[in-house]
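My main concern about presentation is that the manuscript never shows what a single data entry looks like. An entry of this sort, consisting of the sequence and the corresponding backbone structure tokens, reads as follows:
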Amino acid sequence: MLLLNEKEIRSVVTMREVIEADKKAFRMIANGDVEVPLRTGIKAPAHDAEFLFMPSYAPAEEAAAIKVINIFPHNPAKGLDACPAQVLLIDGRTGVVAALMDGATVTRLRTGASSGAAFDLLGKKDCRVGGLIGTGGQAATQLEAMVCVRQLEEVRVFDLDRKLCEEFCVRMQEELRGYGARIVPVKSADEATADADLLITVTPSPKPVFDGTKIKPGCTVSCVGTYEPHKHEMDPAILPRASKIICDHKETALSETGDLLIPIADGLITEDDILGSLGDVIDGRIPGRENDDEIIVYETVGVGSQDLMAAKLIYEKAVASGVGMKWGE
């Protein structure tokens, strides 16, 4: 079994490669080529926490995977990650565990790549300004994916914690300097969204974090932060303005996220207003962007096939590069 930590994972794959792996994962799930049961959650009320298990199996890939990701919101006060995680990649021919990977890194990469895939497929070709709301653990790869697929001049970043926002922008300006975009902190969500051609929200907020009436025509919005039915960081006001609402996987999103379930329950939209999954766009079953004035909303909750395909890519590249520690030999 190959053991891979964060540094080793990042050394063998690029964001563009993970974006393409995500696209393959979305095609597979839309075509029924992968088994992806809904995530299993076990509550730990004494710690305001939850254990989450996300399995997947792709027969054609001869591979399976399971991600264990646990949500412990009080961990940062103990100097620990709020979402500790591991991914096991399993050989589909033998059932032997081929690799154990740092799950937080795999999650950040494949979740960022989900927005990147959506922007690559649904965003305007000529995008100049990006907006990012939230600077937590998932934000760095979300930002990287945004600037990876479109040549942006500026990304405006907002977080309720001004100091953290400024520190994030300084760090990301250095890390992403090769992409050429200016990464600037702003003082309000309105500033982050007003001129955005691409917008990402990645927060744990139970209520909307932006004003949907102020999103400009032509914007593509990726809502990343919530998978729980009682939370909706998306402002429902954007939904009637959107030409298209597309999910990473429609069935999963409709079983989990308040971003869609709450406005459906309120009668603002219906399930029929959600056109389908990103894999359906890739395969041409539903249209992507048809003009530069469309507002398109992308809702992503994450599906196990992303972890599987990202982990398989990482494993194959690590083996080819001789990276990682072998255990059990």
